[in-house]
Design goal:
Layout (H helix, E strand, L loop, with lengths): L4 E7 L6 H9 L6 E8 L5 H11 L3 E6 L4 H11 L4 E4 L5 E2 L3 H11 L4 E10 L2 E6 L7 E3 L1 H7 L1 H4 L3 H8 L16 E4 H6 L12 H12 L2 E13 L5 H5 L3 H26 L4 H19 L8 H12 L2 H9 L7 H11 L3 H13 L7
Parallel strand pairs: 1-2, 1-4, 2-3, 6-10
Antiparallel strand pairs: 4-9, 5-10, 6-7, 6-9, 8-10
Length: 364
């Protein structure tokens, strides 16, 4: 018989964390599961640790492959996974012992296609933040998944930006779209052929989460934390966020992926989600400017400016800027949006450079 739950774990150079991750899974109060660990070309002892656990427990399948990124690693495991439900964990994190039991009880009792839950942020072995789901209800069905859940994950809307300019606290705050904070019905993934986009270095979770939610008929929410997200300065996302040109490429690739996803959802759900993420394009112009104005060896200020403009001048970004009406409100907050609106790109970039020199930290 197939296991109730398949846990998919892509790993890359996490030798100092992987044992704690796997031990937390093997210590679960619910034991009807199997695990697929995909070693994505690790160069440390990660692969050896995977093999040790694979020999120790027959429920663990280890796949060694060349380094192609987390999306390809997850897709490799999805093709093999046999569980009724899927969980996607990261090899440097860990979970509470009751995690699988309570998720399975909830998703089966509510006959849901997915269940969302909270997580802890852990640094140096200490929980520094607790993130519970922002959703108020414990269950969403039918159209309300598209109107109440999807907007919390896919991105920022024009309305969100307007509320932010007008001083509403947390107007731009969104749910963390990471896959490790949800359990998904396996058949939903298989029937709809939902996969990760290999070209995405960032945002692959956003697209995957949005797509499976758009295919779901019922989604459960548990207002409890089960997952420990471990902060480390060698993680893939940490390294990525230190490279402004990687961020620039990531933003452009994600723009394309969001557009493709929007068109797919229009076809199978007859629902247009564009309005939920179009504001992200405008906010990304400002966010990218802060990244690109960082001092970087080997590149001139003007070269960085020209490369920043390649994003601003993307056809879809230009359309978003054109259709966005800057509201009245906080005049300081509205300035960058007016500069974008009236194509004062050089002035905006200069202003942000000055803010960088003053050690101003941009916060959404």
């Amino acid at each position: 018989m197939n296991p109730k739950i398949s846990i998919i774990i892509p790993v890359y150079n996490v030798e100092n964390y992987l044992e704690k991750c796997l031990d937390s899974i093997l210590a679960q109060t619910f034991q009807d599961f199997n695990v697929y660990i995909v070693d994505d070309g690790s160069t440390d002892k990660t692969g050896d640790i995977c093999d040790e656990y694979g020999k120790k427990d027959q429920r663990i399948t280890v796949i060694h492959k060349k380094n192609e990124g987390v999306s390809v690693a997850r897709n490799t495991a999805i093709e093999l996974a046999t569980g009724d439900y899927f969980l996607f964990f990261d090899g440097d994190d860990h979970v509470r012992p009751e995690c699988l039991e309570e998720l399975y009880e909830t998703i089966t009792y509510q006959k849901a296609d997915a269940v969302l839950y909270g997580y802890y942020l852990e640094k140096d072995g200490v929980v520094v933040q607790t993130h519970l789901p922002q959703m108020k209800k414990s269950q969403y069905e039918g159209k309300e998944i598209m109107t109440d859940l999807v907007p919390r994950f896919i991105g920022v809307s024009f309305r969100d930006i307007k509320r932010w300019i007008q001083g509403e606290k947390d107007a731009l705050k969104k749910e963390n779209t990471a896959l490790w904070r949800s359990m998904v019905k396996g058949d939903l993934i298989r029937r709809n052929n939902i996969r990760f986009k290999p070209q995405l270095r960032v945002g692959e979770d956003t697209c995957f989460t949005t797509e499976y939610l758009s295919c779901a008929k019922r989604c459960a929410v548990i207002h409890k934390c089960y997952y420990y997200l471990v902060v480390r300065n060698t993680s893939t996302i940490f390294v990525y966020e230190k490279d402004p040109y990687a961020i620039l490429k990531g933003k452009i690739d994600l723009l394309t992926a969001r557009r493709e996803l929007t068109e797919r959802i229009k076809i199978h759900r007859s629902f247009d989600i564009e309005k939920y993420w179009y504001g992200t394009l405008i906010m990304s112009c400002i966010q990218l400017a802060f990244f690109m104005t960082r001092k970087e060896k080997g590149r001139s200020w003007m070269e960085n400016y020209r490369n920043w403009k390649t994003y601003v001048e993307q056809k879809e970004v230009q359309n978003a800027i054109k259709t966005f009406n800057v509201p009245s409100g906080n005049k300081i907050k509205a300035i960058p949006f007016y500069l974008l609106k009236y194509k004062k790109y050089y002035t905006l970039y200069c202003c942000i450079t000055i803010l960088q020199l003053c050690h101003y930290e941009f916060k959404r």
